[in-house]
Each structure stands twice: as C-alpha cells, then as structure tokens.
Design brief:
Blueprint lengths: L1 E2 L3 H8 L16 E2 L2 E9 L4 E6 L5 E7 L6 H20 L8 E6 L12 E5 L4 E2 L13 H17 L2 E2 L8 E3 L5 E3 L6 E2 L5 E3 L17 E2 L2 E4 L2 H16 L9 H12 L13 H10 L10 H12 L4 H19 L25 H11 L9 H12 L6 E2 L4 E2 L6 H4 L18 H15 L10 H10 L2 H7 L7 H14 L2
Helix pairs in contact: 3-4, 3-7, 4-6, 6-7, 6-8, 9-10, 9-12, 10-15, 13-14
Organism: Planotetraspora thailandica
GO molecular function: ATP binding; protein serine/threonine kinase activity
InterPro entries: Kinase-like_dom_sf (IPR011009), Lysozyme-like_dom_sf (IPR023346), Prot_kinase_dom (IPR000719), Ser/Thr_Kinases-Pseudokinases (IPR051681)
C-alpha cells in the first residue's frame, strides 16, 4: 500500500524541482509501504528510481513504473516488462545480479498519476558504470569490472535468459566496489535458440542484425549473441573511454556498425586497447552472430588476460586461451583444430588437397556454424578458383593468390587488426584462405530464402556478389559451369 502526503503539497513540489520530466515524480518523504523516499536517483523513459529507507534506516532502491501517465497500449507494454523483470528475479539469483527484495502496487486514488504503479524494492547501488565513463579516459579497474560483468552475463545465459539491454548505465557499482547487472525490463527467456524483444534498445549497444529480423507479434527474434555484442561495446568503453564505432550520433554509429557487418568498412578499434583485449573485443563484435563467442568463453579468456585464473586450471586455460586468441585474431570463434590433430574428420585423406593448406582450410571451413559452410566447400572453391596455386596472378582481373582475391576486397576480410589496409600482391595463403571463411560466415546468412544449395550459393556469391544471387534467386546461368566444378570437387573432398 502506498500513502501520499497532501496532494497540494505534492503538486507544489513538482513545480519547483529536480525531477521535472521524469517518468515518476515523487517528493522526499513520500511513503511507499514501509519505505520513505529519501532522494531521487535516476529516471528512464518508462521508470524512475529513488532511494528509500525503512524505519531502521536500511536503504533500498525503489524502481517505480507509472500507469496514470501512459496510454493503454503503453500500459500493456509496461506491464509485460514488469512481469518479465519480476519473473527473472524469482527464477535467477547470482552475486552479479541486482537483488529484488519485494514488490509493491500503489493504491492511491487521490493521485491518478501514481495509482496502480508497480514498485520494485531492490538492492541499493552507489552508482552506475555510466557515471565513471569519461571520453577517452579508461575506467580504473576496468579489467576486473569486465570479468564481473561476464560472470553475471554467463550465469544469465546458463539459466536460459538474456539481458537484452546491457550497457554501462545498466551495470551498477555497489558499495564494496563490485558490480551487478540491473534493469531487466527487456530481459527475455530463450525458447530454443531465440528469445523475443520489443523494437527497442540503445542503438550503440544493439547489434546490426537486430533490425534485419522481421517484427512479429512477439517482437524481434534475438539470440544471446546480442548480449555478447553489447558486452564488447561496453568493455571497449571501460578500457578506453571510447565506443568501437566513431560518428557524431548514435544513429550514424549504428549505420557504421551495419556497414562493418556486411564487409563495407573495417573494424577500427581505439589504438589504446592492449593487444589481448583488442582481440577479445573483436570476438564479441564478430559480424556474424553465430561467430561470436559465448559469455562463458569470454569470461575464461578475460580471466586468463588478467592472470586471475586459479592455479589448478591455469595450464588448461592457457591452451584454451591460445586457441581462442588465434580465433579472435581471425575475427571468428570457430572450431579451429589444434596443431598435430588429424584433418581426416573434415577432408578425405586421399584427396588432392595439398597437406600444407589443410589446417588453413579446416580453420576457414569451421569458423561458424552457418548451413552450407564446410572445409570441403572451402577446398572445392580454392580448387575451382586457382587449382591450389598460391602464386596465381591475373592482373587483367585484379585477382591474385590461391583464392583469387581482389586486394581492395580482401582488405575487408583480414583479421581485425589489419582490416581496411589494402594488401599488396602476392597474397599469401595464410591471409587468403581464412578470409574465404570470414566471407562465407558474413554472406551465407544473407542468402537465406534463396533457392538452392546454401554452400554452392555462397561459392557463387564469392564469384559475383550476394546481391546478384538474391536478385536472380539462385545461381546465374553464366556461373553454372564454375559452380558445377565446385560441387564436383566438394563431393570428392567430403569424408
């Protein structure tokens, strides 16, 4: 039950005050159940947060979602957000997630703006990480903060939930210096591989693929990889004071991220990032959602980077870190075989694929789990393009090397730390072959719905463009002979 002071006093306070324009305006001293409002903390579009104290002086955060100042449609949306947030708190508990103490419903007919509002009584934080971010200035202790964010995110994902709105303002710093994830109004349960979110989100932290998903009556389909993208963006801010994409407005930065995701611009991270963290963030920001690492993997890797891995696990995690670092430097997180492992699982032992290229081909063919991608397909494409000739040179077409890359195109598919620089021929296989995998991981999702074998469609797009394949709804007749050869070689190379 919520009781109010006299309405005249409340209206007078609202005309003078610090919280004008907030979603909910309350005066100091306003009583909510056993709590008395002691000061305003922050407000968003849909809720306001105040500090409250009980009769013993214990402090808590009071998150209040209004009802009287919104439309019927907005009210339904607010109710759904509130119900999701409460359900998550009841199902998932962890030291890195803000705690919910109780819920209250306002019963105050004398104040229509507040009557019926839901109040979440939560643990009180000192501030959010957004309060610590300064332009171009690293946040002190950023590496530890990132690890603790990963701990909360990995637990959420393991319990079948995704946050949906991870950003510095939704990560709270507690009195003991630890962090807790908060603001679960856009959290969603994962149903199979996806959850569903309304068409909302902070543009700087929303991955480019979000708006490519069709909007259904349940919202946009989303994967937990969207949280990992937001994790990478947040980590970049904490470590450098900068966002990974630079432009004057959030909309322009989102456009830059979308252009990066389709290979039209490189990922240019701040120069002040340490090399290990540069690779870590590039992994979070992998263009293909399926190529991003899990939050649990990033937690392990972050612990290795900071030397905080328990001694008993250090040796094993160094091996994992070495493999992860190699994949992250490639801008992917796929199943890269370790040196010395047999490639017969992926390529026929008696096939004419040169032994010296097999590890690179397997790396390229396992960079992501896109349907159609395989080492056999990559090997077949190389055979059809050049006959495995690393010294191929065709200046008339501006194509070079074992994969017949045009240098001005290859630059978009190099590892993140070199992406954007046009390479000069000859083009070594160590660059050319993994780049084929990056290309396919980026382009195969764009061919969903086009008729035909997905892998062969990708090979055809490599020869022309995914726009042409979508426009013609299949493989153009002029490429059919080339694709028939790719199909024949793939059958020969498949174990």
């Amino acid at each position: 039950m919520l009781t109010s002071p006299d309405i005249a006093g409340l209206q007078e306070w609202r005309t003078t005050m610090r919280t004008d324009g907030w979603a909910v305006s309350l005066p100091v001293g306003y009583r909510i159940g056993g709590w008395r409002v002691s000061r305003p903390i922050a407000s968003g579009s849909w809720a306001s947060v105040y500090e409250g104290r009980d009769c013993d002086g214990t402090a808590a955060a009071l998150k209040i979602m209004p009802t009287g100042t919104v439309t019927r449609r907005q009210l339904r949306h607010l109710q759904e957000m509130t119900q999701r947030e409460i359900r998550l708190h009841r199902q998932v508990r962890h030291a890195r997630l803000i705690g919910l103490r109780e819920t209250l419903v306002v019963d105050d007919p004398g104040c229509p703006d507040l009557d019926g509002a839901c109040v979440l009584v939560m643990d009180l934080a000192e501030r959010s990480l957004a309060d610590l971010v300064r332009d171009g200035v690293p946040v002190p202790g950023a590496a530890r903060l990132i690890i603790e964010i990963c701990e909360g995110l990995a637990h959420l994902h393991a319990e079948g939930w995704m946050h949906g709105d991870l950003k510095p303002s939704n990560v709270l710093l507690m009195a003991d210096g630890s962090v807790k994830l908060a603001d679960f109004g856009l959290a969603t349960e994962i149903d199979g591989t996806h959850g569903y979110l309304p068409p909302m989100g902070s543009l700087d932290y929303v991955p480019p693929e979000r708006w490519g998903e069709s909007l259904t009556d349940r919202g946009h389909a989303v994967r937990v990889s969207a949280d990992v993208w937001a994790l990478g963006t947040t980590a970049c801010q904490l470590l450098t004071g900068r966002l990974p994409f630079t432009a004057p407005t959030a909309r322009a930065r989102h456009v830059a991220a979308a252009e990066y995701a389709i290979g039209e611009r490189p990922l240019t991270l701040p120069a002040s990032l340490p090399p290990g963290w540069r690779s870590w963030i590039a992994g979070c920001l992998a263009p293909s959602p399926k190529s991003r690492p899990t939050a649990a993997r990033q937690l392990r890797q972050a612990r290795v980077l900071t030397g905080s891995v328990p001694a008993a696990r250090r040796g094993r995690d160094r091996l994992l870190a070495a493999a992860s670092a190699a994949m992250l430097l490639a801008g992917t997180v796929g199943a890269v075989p370790l040196a010395g492992h047999s490639h017969e699982r992926w390529l026929r032992a008696d096939a004419d694929v040169p032994e010296r290229y097999r590890a690179l081909i397997v790396e390229a063919g396992t960079m992501c789990d896109e349907p159609g991608l395989s080492p056999a397909l990559v090997a077949a494409m190389l055979k059809a393009e050049s006959g495995f000739d690393p010294d191929l040179s065709d200046p008339a077409k501006d194509e070079y090397g074992i994969a017949r890359w045009t240098p001005s195109v290859l630059r978009y598919y190099l590892p993140p730390d070199r992406r954007g620089t046009i390479p000069v021929p000859p083009l070594p296989p160590e660059d050319s072959i993994p780049a084929v995998g990056r290309y396919l991981c980026m382009r195969l999702p764009l061919l969903a719905g086009v008729r035909g074998d997905r892998g062969l469609l990708g090979a055809a797009a490599y020869r022309t463009s995914d726009d042409v394949i979508r426009r013609e709804n299949g493989i153009p007749a002029r490429l059919q002979a080339h694709i028939d050869r790719v199909k024949e070689y793939r059958a020969e190379y498949q174990p």
